[in-house]
Amino acid sequence: MAASPPTTATTPSFAGSIRVGMGQLLVEGGEPERNMERAAQMIAEAARQTCDVVLLPETLDFAWTHPSALTEAQPIPGLYSDRLCQEALRHQVYVCAGLTERGADGHNYNAAILINPQGEILTKYHKINLLTVEQPFYAVGQTLNVVDTPLGKIGVNICADNFLDGLSIGHTLARMGAEFILSPSSWTVDYSITEEDDPYREKWVKPYSILAQLYNVAIVGTTSVGYIVGGPYEGKKSVGCSLAVDASGIRAQGTFNEFAGDLVVAELPRPVRAEKGTQIGEMLLRKGFRFDVLPG
């Protein structure tokens, strides 16, 4: 086996910046109206703080794996996505949020949408790296997309798509030219876990940092807060810890907090990504990344 090429230290290049409001929402299982009202309030607060983008949690309508979603999920466009579009238009901000979608094929999907300030859905994504416990609730997504906006090229994924074992999804978004990856999330722990035991420092900082440093992209994940009621994770809790990472390190991080919502604002320089296509592979080789090594 040939020796790995030496890692080449590079200084990340940036141009301009955007303000992302990470809206850590209290998401109540099976209470979509209350959850949507809190989402609207968070969007308004982010606009007051001059955010360009508001990133909200995963499945903020019914909550992640809540049984009510099996029978009450709405299409996109539909009742809940329309509400978010109205709020984006009212406050003239981009909104990225996780919802449960009843697809035209009859399946439910763990979905995320990106809405522009004109209230239009720019892209919709279905989560691919589904946990085993959520597979009875959602079908596996089959597409990835990156959209051009005045803020930069934005890709969208969801929560466990950024696990180390699902990081190929982020690699692909970066290969597609993403400068920012927005990830509605719902990070959960056992009810007994406290701030002193916070397990998320390395679980999320590490994979976010891998993508950020390899490709010079910014990755932002916003998570819900509150105790989980109903479904396979009943009794566990969502604890915030929303995270924004770019090639220079952690830009912003929410507190470990299961009790109340909070808006965490991240000022993110827009990465300059000159490489395209095979140039990206050449850049990765210069950084010591290996394409030809099988697991030991």
UniProtKB/TrEMBL annotation:
Q: Which SUPFAM superfamilies match?
A: Carbon-nitrogen hydrolase
The record ties this protein, via Pfam families, to: CN_hydrolase (PF00795)
Q: What InterPro entries does UniProt report for this protein, alphabetically?
A: C-N_Hydrolase, C-N_Hydrolase_sf
Task: Supply the alphabetized keyword list.
Answer: Hydrolase
Q: Which Gene3D superfamilies match?
A: Carbon-nitrogen hydrolase (3.60.110.10)
Q: Which residues form the CN hydrolase domain?
A: 18-270
**An example Gene Ontology molecular-function term:** hydrolase activity
**What is the protein named?**
Carbon-nitrogen hydrolase family protein
